[in-house]
Amino acid sequence: MAAYDIVIRNGQVADGTGRKLFAADVALKGDRITAVEAPGSLRGDNEIDATGKVVAPGFIDVHTHDDTALIDNPTMAMKASQGVTTVVCGNCGVSAAPYTRPDVGHWMSLIVKKKENLSKDFADFAGKVNAAKPAINGAFLIGHGTLRINTMGDDLNRVATPAETRQMRDLLDQSLSQGAIGMSSGLFYAVSSHASTDEVAEVAQPLGRWGGVYTAHMRDEGDHILKAMDETFEIGRRAGAEIIVSHHKCSGRTNFGRMKETLPKFTEAMKQQQIAFDVYPYVAGSTILRSDMLDRADKVLITWSDKVAGMSGRDLTDIAREMGCSMREAADRIQPAGAIYFMMDEKDVQAAMSHPGAMIGSDGIPFDAHPHPRLWGTFPRVLGHYSRDLKLFPIEDAVRRMTSYSARRFHLARRGEVRPGYYADICVFDPATVIDTATFEKPIAPAKGIDTVICNGAIAWRDGKEGGGRAGRPLNMQEMQKEAKA
Ligand code: ZN
Ligand code: CU
How far is the CA of 238 from the centre of ligand 2 (A)? Predict the structure, then answer.
């Protein structure tokens, strides 16, 4: 019997820490990395020639809405094809558990297609993910918006009562005890925009006790972003939780260039508190269609409409012209719907991505008919376009912002590095050719240059196709905390 199951030979290792590339063989046994040795020195049952390739830790997509995609779509091609081996789900305030209402509802439909994929408690949901045998791992945040709908019903345009706040806090506490890794909020969205700072800080209290993280789609990413940052930092402080600001951006033409204000503010706050943020590598964002966002976008593309067929992928200006009405009126007529908004400045995006607090997250929305290309393109785009072609940062640093830094900020034990004893999550890619191919016109397309993707020792993606490996699992905070100490 060979000492190893898989040996990746003669590659250049980017170990995830930012350390300079070095030549080595990497051996895997079971679900672990067992040896990193001189090139040509290791042999195994299954040998993968990585000559001319980079051997990196599997990428961690820290900002996703893949909660139930892991169940509905367990091969997770849109992520495995990018080298992603772990997705952090439940961002922006919306999660699939704990939820006891009989209906899915408009807000929840952002992440849920089938009612049976919702769960009354987190343990039950994690069981469903486990049973689906996904190709990659999932770690799960509990959404404050989901807690609100679950607890307050349809009466959301107010602050929660003390009894409701207590109930939400208890649900969060229970979820964390069952292995959820933290809480997300989305105060920008209608379901949560009436929540006060006090409400969120109160609900978030169990985070400090359990060591869970707090992620925030802030109340404002435009004119009032500095105030929204203060609110976010206050909530994290009061809960005793580490903070990750979601998809950091300065939104709208009048706010272009304001990274000059937000980034120094992050730098300052990071001296006092544990704060980081995620970024996706595009100047367009995507969420539900909102008429108050139309003015600040230079262009709006429709991603889906439940009301009118044939809207997906179309420019709202053209739709309005055809309907003979204003953009606002056209938007009203096709609701409920989703959209892509071109509303960021390229220089801002680059400045955010290269800040010491930045890691990469796609914010892809898995069930959109015509999704934002970030769903299939984020990680190869950072590697190929931003690191190799624009030289925004060296390849080792690009990998670090997708792996070890992300694993540390989200406390994902023994992931994010190519190191003996760590989990066998690996991405082998060609540094000369790696690039995203998904575009705004044709968004569903696997990247180029991603050679082999391994999750927990099983091949999830190989040579442009699904690899058949289905060894992903729900990552449980309680178990990871024990592992980190061991
Ligand atoms: Zn968001
Ligand atoms: Cu999001």
Answer: 23
Q: How far is the CA of 91 from the centre of ligand 2 (A)?
A: 5
Q: How far is the CA of 211 from the centre of ligand 1 (A)?
A: 23
Q: Which residue from 250, 283, 282 is spatially nearest to 265, judged by alpha carbons?
A: 250
Give residue 422's identity as a one-letter amino acid code.
Y
Residue type, 15: D
Strand (E) or helix (H) holding 264: helix 259-270
Q: What is the pLDDT of residues 444-476, one digit of tens each?
A: 999 999 999 999 999 999 999 999 999 999 999
SS3 9: strand
| CA distances, 169 to each of 147, 162, 245, 302, 443 (Å) | 9, 10, 21, 36, 39
Q: Report which DSSP code applies to 253.
A: G
Q: Is the pTM of this model over 0.90?
A: yes
Distances in Å between the Cα of 132 and the Cα atoms of 87, 98, 263, 473 are: 15, 19, 40, 9
The label of the residue with tokens 């220089």 reads 347
Rounded CA-CA distance 472/139 in Å is: 11
Q: Which of 458, 464, 475 is nearest to 429 (CA)?
A: 464
What separation in Å is there between the alpha carbon of 49 and the centre of ligand 2?
37
The alpha carbon of 345 and the centre of ligand 2 are apart by a number of angstroms equal to 19
Find the length of the chain: 486
Q: Report yes or no: 118 and 66 within 8 Å, Cβ to Cβ.
A: no
Alpha helices in 81-161 (DSSP H): 122-132, 144-152
Q: What is the DSSP letter of 278?
A: E
| C-beta separation of 262 from 292 below 8 A | no
Residue 151 CA, chain-centre distance (Å), reads 26
Expressed in angstroms and rounded, the spacing between residue 364 Cα and the centre of ligand 1 is 10
User: In the chain, what's the furthest Cα-to-Cα distance?
Assistant: 72
Q: How far is the CA of 463 from the centre of ligand 1 (A)?
A: 32
Residue type, 124: D
CA 183 to ligand 2 centroid distance, Å: 13
pLDDT digits (tens, 9 = 90+) for 207-260: 999 999 999 999 999 999 999 999 999 999 999 999 999 999 999 999 999 999
For residue 45, what pLDDT is reported?
A: 83
Residue 227: CB atoms within 10 A of its CB come to: 12
Cα 187 to ligand 2 centre (Å) = 12
Beta bridge partners of 462: 452, 465
Minimal CA–CA distance to 87: which of 366, 277, 382, 351? 366
Q: Which residues contact 473 (CB under 8 A, 6 or more apart)?
A: 129, 130, 134, 137, 138, 456
CA of 363 to the centre of ligand 1 (A): 7
Residue 211: partners with Cβ closer than 8 Å, 6 or more residues away: 411, 477, 481
